[in-house]
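User: Please fill in residues for this 576-position structure.
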């Protein structure tokens, strides 16, 4: 009901996105085309719903330069470069049932539509794969392409590699779901398009990444709520299907992760009662969107249906689902590339991440904190506050107006796991105050017009079970110190902060997040200026009940009876 007469544009309900209605209609077509193409490919061309016929009509109208439904071209708007990759990918996967049956004129017009990708500039982030995929398809159908474009893009993508199979989305400390649903997904599919065999290097990276990724899914199927483009929802399942397609990892565990993510959103009203994926997380929450998002954008979630492209007899469909790590037992895990200390608890099925390595920026940048990247903690059961000064999962210095400072640009310290399984990590930064500058909000930091600097801050985290013990100190000069806890829904897993000596002021702030209109954020603070060089300590819990850890200087006795002596911090110096 949302398609134009010839099906070229699929315009879902809602106000136009930041790029306008023409781009919205193209997104709606390209992203739903992904889901349709995966289904038909997995059924070996069986198409009782005539999906290929429906999309063929839309394709013909979209690439016809004289059609009133023609698509925005790649040389008219950058977003068309993104959508062209989805179209090219599905034309490849469904070649016998769509491309091979198109009239010669339509094929020529498809090639003409995609051709501006050749020699074009693409941002040196996950977008390099869009150019690679489009030009690889053009090469396969005798169209124009530049091998140097493909080679350059592959070299850039290699440069994104980090530790333990992870990729950063560009040169910054940019770790989010794009690592899985783009930077690991496209290499698998591109090699198929190019007729190349498996690349042992990439398969090893993918397998290692997936070993971390399955630890980041909650028992209820929620993916980690961190990073931009969260309105893509179950696209977070894409890397698990990519692993299955590539033949790495345990099929039963991969399916449990992928199907669990999809079921999580279906169980929470996405799609909605009209069958539409709206801008939001569970339900409709437009505030979650970045400026590039429109009503068709959520259908990037189709990538989470890549499993449909695998036949019914594939091991990922025939294997018995295995429990997720958090369903099997409590665990702690250091994930080194993004700088995360990960703790999962079987009793409530929640996975928590304490963040000492990701801010979508560079050390020393002094930018405003992006809530989806620079907080000290993320989980599968909490959503960060998306507006206002840093409060939740923060350590801030308060200025004379009560505004919290920012940490983006911090220096990351070492991460380690003690023999007991307790995790320890740290970071240091100069407190600074700034406002995001003008320009589009893409979910990551924007330079501010003015930056004011405060004291240096050091934070050391010890993590075990549902608790983090957070050690904090100021250097060089005093300041009013505040420690913010988890932003938990009022009816959620429970959140509390227990302040130690000197952190005697406390409270609970109430705010709205995409998870709940009443989200509770406990905090503790110094009643006056904190003394430089003195370590202050607070215990933060995401979970219900139980005694707080007992803390004596650097010795912690956890609720389970484990006793740890936390090593003295050795953080590298930040710039002054």
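Assistant: Residues filled in for all 576 positions:
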């Amino acid at each position: 009901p949302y398609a134009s007469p010839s099906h070229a544009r699929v315009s879902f309900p809602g106000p136009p996105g930041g790029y306008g209605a023409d781009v919205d209609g193209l997104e709606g077509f390209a992203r739903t085309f992904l889901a349709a193409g995966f289904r038909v490919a997995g059924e070996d061309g069986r198409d009782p719903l005539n999906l290929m016929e429906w999309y063929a009509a839309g394709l013909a109208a979209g690439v016809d330069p004289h059609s009133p439904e023609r698509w925005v071209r790649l040389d008219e708007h950058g977003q068309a470069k993104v959508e062209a990759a989805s179209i090219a990918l599905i034309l490849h996967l469904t070649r016998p049932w769509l491309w091979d049956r198109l009239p010669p004129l339509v094929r020529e017009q498809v090639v003409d539509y995609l051709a501006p990708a050749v020699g074009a500039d693409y941002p040196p982030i996950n977008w390099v794969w869009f150019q690679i995929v489009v030009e690889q398809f053009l090469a396969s159908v005798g169209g124009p392409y530049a091998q140097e474009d493909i080679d350059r893009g592959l070299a850039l993508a290699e440069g994104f590699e980090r530790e333990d199979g992870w990729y950063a989305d560009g040169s910054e400390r940019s770790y989010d779901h794009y690592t899985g649903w783009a930077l690991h997904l496209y290499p698998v599919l591109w090699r198929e398009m190019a007729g190349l065999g498996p690349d042992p290097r990439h398969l090893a990276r993918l397998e290692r990444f997936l070993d971390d990724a399955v630890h980041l899914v909650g028992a209820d199927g929620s993916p980690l709520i961190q990073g931009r483009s969260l309105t893509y929802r179950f696209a977070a399942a894409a890397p698990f299907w990519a692993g299955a397609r590539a033949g790495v990892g345990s099929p039963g565990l991969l399916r449990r992760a992928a199907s669990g993510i999809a079921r999580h959103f279906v169980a929470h009203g996405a799609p909605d009662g009209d069958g539409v994926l709206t801008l939001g997380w569970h339900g409709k929450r437009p505030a979650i969107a970045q400026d590039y998002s429109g009503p068709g954008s959520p259908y990037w979630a189709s990538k989470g249906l890549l499993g449909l492209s695998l036949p019914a007899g594939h091991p990922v469909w025939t294997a018995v689902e295995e429990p997720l790590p958090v369903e099997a037992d409590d665990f702690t895990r250091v994930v080194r590339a993004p700088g995360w200390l990960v703790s999962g608890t079987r009793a409530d099925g929640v996975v928590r991440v304490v963040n000492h390595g990701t801010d979508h920026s560079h050390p020393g940048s002094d930018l405003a904190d992006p809530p989806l990247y620079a907080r000290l903690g993320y989980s599968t059961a909490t959503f960060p506050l998306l507006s206002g000064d840093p409060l939740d999962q923060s350590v801030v210095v308060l200025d004379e107006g009560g505004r919290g400072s920012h940490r983006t640009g911090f220096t990351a310290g070492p991460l380690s796991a003690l023999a007991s399984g307790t995790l320890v990590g740290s970071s240091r930064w100069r407190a600074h105050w700034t406002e995001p500058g003008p320009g589009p909000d893409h979910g990551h930091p924007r330079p501010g017009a003015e930056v004011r600097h405060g004291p240096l801050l050091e934070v050391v985290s010890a993590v075990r079970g549902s608790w983090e013990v957070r050690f904090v100190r100021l250097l060089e000069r005093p300041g009013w110190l505040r420690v913010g806890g988890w932003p938990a829904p009022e009816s959620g897993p429970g959140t509390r902060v227990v302040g130690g000596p000197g952190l005697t002021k406390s409270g609970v702030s109430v705010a709205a997040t995409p998870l709940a209109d009443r989200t509770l954020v406990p905090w503790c603070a110094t009643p006056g200026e904190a003394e430089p060089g003195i370590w202050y300590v607070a215990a933060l819990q995401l979970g219900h009940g139980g005694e707080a850890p007992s803390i004596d200087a650097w010795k912690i006795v956890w609720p389970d009876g484990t006793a740890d002596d936390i090593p003295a911090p050795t953080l590298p110096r930040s710039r002054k």
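For context: Confidence is low (pLDDT under 50) at residues 571-576.
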